[in-house]
């Protein structure tokens, strides 16, 4: 993190409440001396950065088990935000309850749908527990603590259990133990590139032509661009045209720029969300 970020108390927008995984990333990346803006939805997070209410945002974009959070790509696009960095957080999901209860006492567990998805195998062993989607992992922990709810559990981080005074009755319940979530760091202005980037996030819209996707992939391969993610969505009001959200590793920056130019000239439109450093562990 650069010196500018360290000298100013920043307002960081996240989806969720204190104790959430987004909160962890915000503190680990920007430091603990921040003003945290917690929102219920990712849409509200993006709006806060777009309006200038928040300086930056932390947003989950994909998980090593559950895959991409596709709507977030569209949110970034619609609110004209830029990616200036990424952060990989190892995820530990834990079943936590109001103190003094065991798993036999729990009839309902609530959490974010992605967290529930990542813990399906564990809960298959406890069929008496009903799983309910909620807005955020730590938010459920907060509600249990505030209302002293019994019979209800939350799936959340150890930080959430500590923050809200809950008891963890089952640790690391995610199906795959080597579980990471990739977060992106967002800002309103186009970031200044201070070192040669090794990764880029793009939106490429292909014109309605035969073999358009194949041509796109060929151009990127010929320029040694290694795609780490590709997701497609139809273009509204343009039948049979598709936009592709792409993350690609950059081996040679000059060749990357050449590829972008060739795509724009030949058969597609390119929007660059960000050029930054690959932080994959």
Low-confidence stretches: none
Q: How much of the polypeptide forms β-strand, as a percent range?
A: 25-35%
Number of E-state strands: 15
Q: What is the level 1 CATH name of the largest domain?
A: Alpha Beta
CATH superfamily of the largest domain: Periplasmic binding protein-like II
**Rg to the nearest angstrom?**
21 Å
Distance between the termini: 17 Å
Q: Work out the count of structural domains.
A: 3
**Rough shape?**
elongated
The sequence of SSEs as H and E is HEHEHEEHEEEHHEHEHEEEHEEHE
CATH architecture of the largest domain: 3-Layer(aba) Sandwich
Rounded mean pLDDT is 92
Helix content: 25-40%
Number of helices: 10
What key phrases describe this protein's structure?
281 residues, alpha/beta, D-Maltodextrin-Binding Protein, domain 2, Alpha-Beta Plaits, 3 domains, six-stranded mixed β-sheet, five-stranded mixed β-sheet, 31% helix
Give a description of the structure.
There is one protein chain. With 281 residues, the protein is an alpha/beta fold. It contains 10 helices and 15 strands. Strands 1, 2, 3, 4, 5 and 11 form a 6-stranded mixed beta sheet that branches. The longest helix is centred in the last third of the chain and has 14 residues. It folds into 3 domains: 96 residues, D-Maltodextrin-Binding Protein, domain 2, CATH 3.40.190.10; 77 residues, D-Maltodextrin-Binding Protein, domain 2 (3-Layer(aba) Sandwich); 78 residues, 2-Layer Sandwich (Alpha-Beta Plaits), CATH 3.30.70.260. Strand 1, helix 2 and strand 2 form a beta-alpha-beta unit.
